[in-house]
Amino acid sequence: MFNPKTLFALNKKDQDAIVFTDANGEIIRLTSADFESEDTFRRWKSWYMKRLNEEENENHTYADNTLSLDGLPEALTATPSPEIVIERRVERKKRIDYSAETVIRIKGQLTEKQFRRLWMYCVRGMTEQEIAVREAVGQQRISKSINAAVKKIKKIFAAGQ
Predict the structure, then answer these.
(1) Residue at 140 is within a domain
(2) Res 1 pLDDT > 80
(3) More confident residue, 21 or 93
(4) Range of the domain at 148
(5) How far apart are CA 49 and CA 76, in angstroms?
């Protein structure tokens, strides 16, 4: 967004002066009367405007490609403590290990075909028809195989094996 109070805006608005701020933040205006000639003033004005324009473009590039944290809830900007990060990693590792153990248990109870078809259906997201085409069998055979596998898995978990 264009800020009318920037040095670039002030200099663009006031073509007859070079506007800048001193070390105390005071606005200083230099006119052609402060230079030896009108030509010298115009060269300095041109050079200064070029620098201000480059700086303005850099600021816009930065602002256009970043997100201000102002106004965001604190929970979104907070950095978790190292303990929480480690705790989350440990929990994630436990979930991954549990998932791997569960897949191994399931695989041990199903036939190779049932496991392969169930994997393509559930994990890869393939349709029964896509699996049937891949295995050169009818879609009904795939459907029955997957349903039988699901029934076996339900039995396994119902029995608590």
Answers:
(1) yes
(2) no
(3) 93
(4) 95-159
(5) 40
Q: Of the candidates 79, 61, 150, which has an alpha carbon nearest to the alpha carbon of residue 110?
A: 150
Instruction: Note the pLDDT of residue 67.
Output: 67
Assess if residue 48 is contained within a domain.
Answer: yes
Residue indicated by tokens 């199903």? 110
Answer yes or no: is 72 within a domain: no
Q: What percent of the chain has pLDDT over 70?
A: 91
Q: Tell me, yes or no, whether 46 and 101 share the same domain.
A: no
* Closest among 40, 37, 21 to 29, alpha carbons compared: 21
Q: In this structure, is residue 84 part of a structural domain? A: no
Location of structure tokens 């109070």? 5
C-alpha 31, offset from chain centre: 49
Of 113, 107, 109, the C-alpha closest to 135 is 113
Report the C-alpha gap between 91 and 83 in whole angstroms: 12
